[in-house]
Amino acid sequence: MYLCSLFTQLKMAKKIQDPDFWYSLLLPYVNLHTRAAYRRFEVHGKEHIPKDCATVFGVNHSNTLMDALVLLASDNIRKVFVARGDIFKNPIVAKILKFLRILPIFRIRNGVAAVRNNDDTLNKAVDVLHDHVDLYLFPEGTHRTKHSLMRMGKGLFHIAVDANKQFGDQSPVYIVPAAIEYGDYFRFRSTAMVNFGQPINVTEFLKNASEENEAVNINLLKDRLHDEISKLFTFIPDDEDYDAIWEIVKMKNEKRAGGLYKKMLRNRDTVDKVLKFREEHPEEAKNLFERVLTFAQERVRQRISVISTAKKYPLLNALCEFVVVLIGLPYFAVSAVVNLPVWLTTLIIRGKLKDPAFGNTVSFGVELVLFPLIFLVGTLLFFFNLPWACALGATVLLLFSYVFFVDYCELLRRAVSDVRWTFKRKLRKHYESLNLNQLF
Fold this sequence. Notes:
Layout: H1 2-13, H2 21-36, E1 38-44, E2 54-59, H3 64-72, E3 79-84, H4 91-99, E4 102-105, H5 112-115, H6 118-130, E5 134-137, H7 155-167, E6 173-182, E7 190-196, E8 200-201, H8 202-207, H9 214-230, H10 242-253, H11 260-280, H12 282-301, H13 306-309, H14 314-338, H15 340-351, H16 359-385, H17 388-399, H18 401-423, H19 425-434, H20 436-439
Parallel strand pairs: 1-7, 2-5, 2-6, 3-4, 3-5
Antiparallel strand pairs: 6-7, 6-8
Helix pairs in contact: 2-3, 6-7, 10-11, 10-12, 11-12, 12-19, 14-18, 15-16, 16-17
């Protein structure tokens, strides 16, 4: 009886940030699949993260659950997340989210009764920081597939200020700005880059603040974090010209070589030039943006990739791509058949989504669950029915089959797009008339 009581007390006393055997066992597996979900995965600015102190991270939120997964895979440091409370409504889901080290935070729209639960979350979050475990929040509160930032909530800043009140004199509290930039929000096996910025020393900020009003200081911290995050990715002001500016950025930089960080810097440079052009020549800019949007609508209607528009010799590129397509066709055909449960299930679920932003999360989740089963069954069949050397080779081919299947489909799509672009003379003349290379 005494042992049962002691076990119950220990179980109740366990904190969300405490080490957990099953979590630690599954995390490398999940991280491996997260990185495999992107053709290129880069992390920058880790040298900016303070060591052995209370650190809360503020990150832009553009791609549903993939944002948290990408952050998890960025390093092997323990993390706890805070997410919007409405996703915790289902008790089973709530238990899963707790196992995944995610705390709920509620907003007024969730009801006054739900908001009262924020005190418990606030206390747990401060305790996470006290134990020097990294705490991650998405201060925008919800996701949006745009290269901009929405208005930030106050939850992150209340946590940082309360932590500073409780132990800031012993250990400084920092807010670290971070940004995630994706090559594409909707295509599986695109690219992802995490970029950490210069930390904000909350303890020092509040010590030197001229204003004693906490609400004023929180608003100042909000503005500063917004500015710092906007420096870390391709940031475009969220106004009526957003779509036209983003289209110009893609046409200018989509095909240029280099890593993701260099591409982001080129994107930012193009945005700056476009904004300067708009400021100095408002009427010309308005006319240009209208023509760019008209071109973009026609390009999408004719199913031409923006990458094709950046190619100097699209037909030559298409021929080279089709050679690769033909060489890889046998492996692709086998991969398509073997992985039928994965890609067919993914297509069915994605087709029913109300919010397409969840598409990549679905692609990741289905692959995470089904592909290992296919790999396990296939490997057993190979080694039971083939000589070990043949079985080993077949197993290696099976291991990379789904990744190859997805990348092959993308290569084929681009090859067809290049051919379309080659013979759309009217559309190409429209593109040339935009004169983007000379303007920006």
